[in-house]
C-alpha cells in the first residue's frame, strides 16, 4: 500500500466521523443481520487506517481497536472481494495471525467483503467469523456483499445529513448578514423620506410630493418586513430547544409587538397551556397567524380574533387562532402552507408566513390545519406536545 492510498483511505474514513464515537444503531443492526444471514456467532464493521483497525460496530463481542499489523482484514484489504476462508489455520495468510493463534482470538472461519466509498476508496470491511470451521453458500456470499453496500449507504447518508446541516447553518448566517446589510441603508432611506414628508406637510402646493413620499415610505416598510420574514424563514434550519414554554406569556409578547397593526381589534384569549418546544419559534407561529388575521380583514365588519386551546389527549393540546376575516377557500387550505403561495395579487403578504408556521409546528412534532370560522373567517388549529 502506498502512502497516497493510505492518505486517501484516512481522509475517506475521517469524513464519515465514526471513529471515537459509540456504535451507530444502524451499523449495529447491519452486522447483526450479517451474522444471522451467514449463520455465524460474530460479525463486525472494520474501518482500517494506516496504523489501526477500528471495529465501529460489532455483534457477538465487544468492539475494539487493534494494531493494523494484527488485523486479519488489513492483510487482505487490497485483494478481490468477497473473501471466504473455511479454516484460517490452514490459510498461509492467517495461520500466524494473533486473532487465529489464540494471542488475541481463536478465529477459524472468516469471511469479509470490502467497504468501498463512493469515490472508490476501500476503507475497511464487513466481516463475519466463527471459532469453528464452516463455509458459506452462494446466497450467503451475495447477501454479505449486499449488506456491505448498505454499510456504505449508512455512512454516506450520515455524511450528507451533516453537510446539509452545515449548509443550512451557513445559509442562516448569510441571511443574517444580508438582512443587516440591506436594512441599514433601507432604514436611512425611510428616515430621510419621513423627514421630507414632515417638511412638505405645511406646503399646500406639495400634495403630489407628499403622496409620492407616502408611497415610497410604505414600500420601504414592506421591504423591511419581507427581509425580517426571509431571515426568520432561513433561521428555522438551526437547532431547536425543547423547554417548557408558557403560550400565554408568548401571546402577551406577540400582542405587544403587534399593538400597532391590531389597534382597535377585539382579541379574546382563553387559558393557554405550557407546552414543550422552542419559545422563539413558537412565538413566530402566533405572530404570523395574528399578523395574517390583521392583513386579511373583511371589508364590511370589524376584525375580531379569538385565541384558545383544548386538550386533545394526555400528550397533546390543540391551539386555535380564529378570525372573522376573509377566510380561506376550502380548495386552497392545503396550498396556502406551501412557500411563496399567495391567494391574491395584492401586497399584503409575502407567501412565507404560513410556510414558516407549518415548518415550526412540524418540527415540534405537531400538525396544522385551516377550517372556516362559524359565521365566516379562518380558524387555524395546530397541535403541540405538552
UniProtKB/TrEMBL annotation:
Compartment(s): Cell membrane
Highest rank taxon of the organism: Bacteria
Keywords (A to Z) from UniProt: ATP-binding, Kinase, Nucleotide-binding, Phosphoprotein, Transferase, Two-component regulatory system
Limits of the Histidine kinase domain: 177-386
Annotated Pfam families: GAF, HATPase_c, HisKA
GO molecular function, one term: ATP binding
Catalysed reaction equations from the record: ATP + protein L-histidine = ADP + protein N-phospho-L-histidine
EC number: 2.7.13.3
Transferase listed as a keyword: yes
InterPro entries attached to this UniProt entry: BphY/WalK/GraS-like, GAF, GAF-like_dom_sf, HATPase_C_sf, HATPase_dom, His_kinase_dom, HisK_dim/P_dom, HisK_dim/P_sf
Repressor among keywords: no
CDD domains: HisKA
Name of this chain's protein: Sensor-like histidine kinase SenX3
Amino acid at each position: 500500500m502506498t502512502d497516497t492510498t493510505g492518505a486517501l483511505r484516512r481522509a475517506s474514513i475521517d469524513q464519515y466521523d465514526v471513529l471515537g464515537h459509540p456504535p451507530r444503531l444502524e451499523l449495529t443492526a447491519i452486522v447483526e443481520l450479517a451474522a444471522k444471514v451467514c449463520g455465524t456467532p460474530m460479525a463486525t464493521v472494520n474501518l482500517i487506517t494506516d496504523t489501526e483497525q477500528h471495529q465501529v460496530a460489532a455483534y457477538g463481542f465487544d468492539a475494539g481497536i487493534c494494531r493494523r499489523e494484527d488485523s486479519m482484514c488489513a492483510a487482505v484489504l487490497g485483494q478481490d472481494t468477497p473473501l471466504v476462508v473455511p479454516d484460517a489455520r490452514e490459510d498461509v495468510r492467517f495461520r500466524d495471525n494473533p486473532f487465529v493463534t489464540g494471542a488475541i482470538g481463536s478465529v477459524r472461519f472468516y469471511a469479509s467483503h470490502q467497504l468501498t466509498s463512493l469515490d472508490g476508496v476501500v476503507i475497511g470491511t464487513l466481516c463475519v467469523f466463527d471459532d469453528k470451521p464452516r463455509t458459506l453458500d452462494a446466497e450467503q456470499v451475495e447477501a454479505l456483499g449486499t449488506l456491505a453496500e448498505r454499510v456504505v449507504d449508512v455512512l454516506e447518508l450520515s455524511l450528507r445529513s451533516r453537510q446539509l446541516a452545515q449548509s443550512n447553518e451557513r445559509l442562516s448566517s448569510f441571511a443574517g448578514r444580508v438582512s443587516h446589510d440591506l436594512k441599514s441603508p433601507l432604514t436611512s432611506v425611510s428616515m430621510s423620506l419621513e423627514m421630507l414628508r414632515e417638511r412638505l406637510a405645511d406646503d399646500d402646493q406639495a400634495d403630489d410630493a407628499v403622496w409620492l413620499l407616502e408611497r415610497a415610505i410604505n414600500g420601504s416598510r414592506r421591504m423591511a418586513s419581507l427581509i425580517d420574514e426571509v431571515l426568520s424563514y432561513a433561521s428555522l434550519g438551526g437547532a431547536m430547544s425543547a423547554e417548557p414554554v408558557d403560550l400565554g406569556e408568548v401571546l402577551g409578547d406577540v400582542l405587544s409587538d403587534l399593538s400597532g397593526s391590531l389597534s382597535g381589534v377585539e382579541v379574546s384569549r382563553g387559558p393557554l397551556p405550557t407546552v414543550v418546544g422552542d419559545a422563539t419559534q413558537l412565538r413566530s407561529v402566533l405572530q404570523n397567524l395574528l399578523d395574517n388575521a390583521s392583513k386579511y380583514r373583511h371589508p364590511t365588519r370589524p376584525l375580531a380574533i379569538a385565541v384558545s386551546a383544548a386538550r386533545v389527549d394526555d400528550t397533546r393540546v390543540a391551539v386555535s387562532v380564529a378570525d372573522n376575516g376573509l377566510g380561506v377557500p376550502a380548495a386552497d387550505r392545503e396550498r396556502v402552507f406551501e412557500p411563496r403561495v399567495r391567494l391574491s395579487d395584492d401586497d399584503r403578504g409575502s407567501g412565507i408566513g404560513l410556510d414558516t408556521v407549518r415548518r415550526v409546528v412540524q418540527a415540534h412534532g405537531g400538525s396544522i390545519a385551516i377550517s372556516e370560522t362559524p359565521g365566516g373567517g379562518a380558524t387555524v388549529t395546530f397541535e403541540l406536545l405538552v
